[in-house]
Design brief:
It is a single chain. This protein has about 475 residues and is α/β, with parallel strands linked by helices. The protein folds into two domains: about 150 residues, Rossmann fold (3-Layer(aba) Sandwich), CATH 3.40.50.280; about 280 residues, tm_1862 like domain (pyruvate-formate lyase- activating enzyme). About 40% of the residues lie in helices and about 15% in strands. The chain has a seven-stranded mixed beta sheet with strand order 2-1-3-4-5-6-7, sandwiched between helices. The model has no long low-confidence stretch (mean pLDDT about 90).
């Protein structure tokens, strides 16, 4: 069945230095398109341009509904955009979703002026909402996972159950997302081939770290796509869109080991000419020599590792179930396999002191990391750290622009002020990278076309 509703999908972004195709919106668009609705995407440039420019473009497209993915870092930008859009198109329906909305649903709908909010996994919820709007119904009470306005009151329906078999979902709407218009800035700095596409082979994570909001959206349930279906998508991207590299954005691609080995076996069986990496991070303690060997053979050349701290007590404080003693051997195994290691570290976790921060830097310096990413803690909505912090904080008093993991922060610990944590992070980055054995190999991995974006990142303090 075909419906005469046009839905424009939009995700505001703050910087061209980390712009990537919006996978979540891509899945929503392809799902509702399969069910008969007409999805529209803006050119990627509008994600980073001023909201006024994006609104003018949307007015030209004349959609019935605008669906916006809202992340915490871009919440204020999304709120400003929605106000401008509602002023220019009073009759358009605005639907918001994404991790921020899943954590702070009624608040997000209220302060943005959106008509609807989608909590958690959004495909079926959005589809049911679109059918109701098409039919002219205002009976939204029966749509699980939906927030809506009724008689000037914001109401939240019961949570929607997660999709059991995620293989029922079609590929993201790759033909609408204009992959070749994205700049060479995936995750900000490094790639091997271009053009690149992000992919996900799983949804969720079984772990439960205090600083992570993933468990709020995915309820600590890990669901896997069939390896053959995953490689079908890779093959489609190669043949139909000229993609030469894949970034797997899973919360944890290698859990369980059999999942990623199945994908690798299928890549090798089909002899795909593709390289890939895991920039979102994997569990270090799940990597084995045999797994690393087959991953490298199948095209993997880089993996980010979620270490978080070089102090075991700090890790224990945040329920990060990782034994630091296991990390050095895994790094050596990665080096032997020919896979670049990128360590993720967070300064300012609960209990952080100048000494524990020094432990983190020393851990990064003495072990066999090829590159690292030093960030500072932010209490992400949906995480236990945010819930604890919110106990003494008014939501209306929060400046969401400060939720930037690479720049200024408002977050401190009992022993460290926010400005001290920022200084520690910047000193750590300089200390790690301004060593010849790290600096020159890193520069050699940067493509010429990538250099202007890397310089921008340095100037923004993002390294």
């Amino acid at each position: 069945m075909k419906y005469n509703l046009k839905i424009c999908f939009y995700q505001p972004w703050h910087s061209i230095t980390s712009l990537i195709p919006p996978l979540g919106l891509g899945y929503l668009a392809s799902f509702v398109h399969r069910e008969g609705f007409l999805p529209i995407f803006l050119s990627p440039e509008y994600a980073v341009l001023p909201a006024e420019r994006a609104v003018k473009e949307i007015v030209k497209l004349d959609p019935d509904i605008v669906a916006i993915s809202v992340m915490t870092t871009f919440f204020n930008k999304a709120r400003h955009f929605i106000r401008l859009l509602k002023s220019a198109m009073p009759n358009v329906k605005v639907v918001i979703g994404g991790p921020h909305v899943s954590a702070l649903g009624e608040y997000s709908v209220n302060v943005t002026g959106a008509d609807f909010g989608v909590i958690g996994e959004g495909e079926i919820t959005l589809w049911e909402l679109l059918r109701a709007l098409h039919d002219g119904s205002d009976h939204f009470d029966s749509i699980d996972g939906l927030i809506f306005r009724k008689d000037d009151v914001i109401k939240t329906n019961r949570a929607r159950q997660l999709i059991k078999d995620i293989d029922i979902l079609p590929f993201p709407a790759w033909d609408l997302m204009m992959l070749r218009e994205y700049p060479p800035t995936p995750h900000g700095a490094f790639f091997k081939r271009f053009p690149i596409a992000p992919m996900m082979t799983t949804r969720g994570c079984a772990f439960d770290c205090d600083f992570c909001a993933s468990c709020n959206t995915w309820q600590r349930r890990l669901r896997h796509r069939d390896p053959g279906f995953v490689v079908d998508e890779m093959e489609y991207l190669i043949k139909d869109h000229g993609i030469r590299e894949i970034f797997f954005e899973d919360d944890n691609l290698i859990s369980p080991k059999s999942h990623v080995m199945g994908i690798c076996d299928e890549i090798l069986r089909r002899k795909l000419d593709i390289v890939w990496s895991c920039p979102a991070g994997v569990r270090v303690d799940m990597l084995t020599k045999d797994l690393l060997k087959i991953m490298r053979k199948a095209g993997c050349y880089l993996m980010a590792l979620g270490i978080e701290s070089g102090n075991q007590t700090i890790l224990n404080n945040v329920n990060k179930k990782l034994d630091l003693a296991k990390v050095p051997q895994v790094l050596n195994d990665m080096k032997s396999a020919g896979i670049i290691s990128s360590g993720f570290f967070i300064f300012g976790l609960p209990g952080e002191t100048a000494n524990t921060a020094r432990d983190t830097l020393e851990f990064a310096m003495k072990n066999n990391f090829d590159q690292v990413h030093f960030g500072h803690l932010l209490p992400l909505p949906g995480s236990r750290i945010f819930t604890k912090w919110l106990g003494s904080t008014d939501l209306n008093g929060i400046d969401w622009d400060k939720f930037d993991v690479k720049q200024n922060t408002f977050w401190g610990t009992e022993d460290l002020k926010p400005e001290e944590i920022i200084k520690i992070r910047r000193r750590a980055a300089r200390a790690f990278y301004f060593r010849p054995k790290i600096f020159f190999p890193m520069i050699s991995r940067v493509k010429l076309k990538q250099m202007p974006y890397l310089i921008r990142r340095v100037l923004r303090g993002e390294l």
